[in-house]
Please model this.
Amino acid sequence: MSTLVFLEHHGEELQADSLGVLGRLAQQGGDEVSALIAGSGIEGLAKQAGAFGAKRVYLADHPALEAPLPQPRVDVLAALVEEQGIDTVVFAATVLTADVAAGLSARLEAGLNWDLVDLVFEQGRPIGKRPALDDSVLLDVGWKGEPRLALIRTGTFEPLESGGEARVEPVAVGLEDFSTLATMVEQAHEESEGPSIEDAEVIVAGGRGLGGPENFALIEELAKALGGAVAATRAVVDAGWYPYAAQVGQTGKTVSPRLYIACGISGAIQHKVGMQGSTVIVAINKDPHAPIFEYADLGVVGDLHEIVPKLTELVRQRRAA
Amino acid sequence: MKIAVCAKIVPEQARRLDPETKRLDRSGELALNPFDANAIEEALRLQAGEAGSEVVLVSFGPARALEALRKGLAMGADRLLLLTDEAGAGSDLVATSYALARALEREQPELVLCGQQASDSDGAVMWAALAERLRRPLISQVAELTVSDGKLRGKRQTEFGYDLIEAPLPAVVGVSDAINEPRYPSLKGIIGAKKKPQETVSLGEFGVEPDRAGEAGSRTEVYALGEPPPRGETERIEDDGSAAEKIIEFLLARKAI
Model:
């Protein structure tokens, strides 16, 4: 058994989710777990990987790997899997790694299971745990033959610092002609202003059900009354109703406040993975079949435009009293 | 420009897994994967901007998927190509991307568009597998797309913000569901759809070997169906004018405020 974890990085930091996956696999012990970091000017990152459980870190350092684009990374992984006889490659799911994993699947004709919430070994055979159909069932999934590829759901494992040290091995980078045709023109990474939603105790979040950007005022008022922060879904961020820094979910932030009030959010899985760690979840939605009611602690079927202002007023009265 | 949109047909509702095959039960009503409507809409938008463009829908599924696929024709796509074969049932990403790539190799579109994900499997992986098999550049999670002088520019949303990515045609693009609002088919569109070319092709006709399709060609499998870990009960209320008060009571009881 040799398992490889793909470690994504952003600037000088390895992505926490991918370190969490590394820690989970290292913890299951027995087998040597190695990691791959692919980027440009990334020597410094290898040490971090060792501290989180990797025994061996492959370092693919090449200018073509500077931008976070998937196709050159498929080239690196395909060569590494073949040269090192790696039988399982595991990724923490992100926009980048989903593309890398799927490209690698086609390149190597290797099975890919996605959205896993765990990977366990039974008599040496890996079994993926995969919730399906809005998390109403949990499947045991597997692979016919090797290599096996797995994408672990966002926010599944916390990094576990073990303080170890990794052997670092540089790998040669050979690129396919088509892999470098897509190029990064510009990366506009918004930095959030004010307190981060990741630190907030109370979050009031708005989705498409608000009806328009002007109605975010309702969300802001309630958040203010509760002393909390405002969050938004991907749909409304992409529509330009609210800044990206407030986005919760698969491609946004992962939050775990004491209280999360979701207003006009249907609660698709992409949103759920970003907020399911909240202690108390209240959902207000006019659609009684909205998936968010499946995992909210309190589900309120009704018109948020009526309910939210009243709620704000009641909170204010309590504060004043 | 010739644009191919990969369209998936999914169960309309009442989604369940067949305990015997451990596959999704596809016996009920079928519908166009809603995320693929965004890809079709984007293709139609690009077509409107470039005279002489063609939009072709490419799908892999059961023969009876044809009816649900006509929605794409009713929206405005020019024709559709359905790969269908009994041997195709149970195909995973490896097998499906192989079959679709064979069809796309025949069609030779300059642009291949995919929707953000499949609503039944929650997969968001097809475009990257197709780009690999077709050896073409890829832009995914695109929330804004422009084409000029044989070049694509896509605005991609990631965990860190927005990226602007450029790629020459021919290329593969995965669009996000925020890229547009798909149109509803007009009555005229629905009537006209029936007359548009609809080709049904077996896997063999595209040179897909029997051992590369269906379960034989798949590299993943499902061992068992189980219950998810239990979660807390959801308390539900319908707003009768007093919802705000009830929310406050609930939050006080939970010591959340």
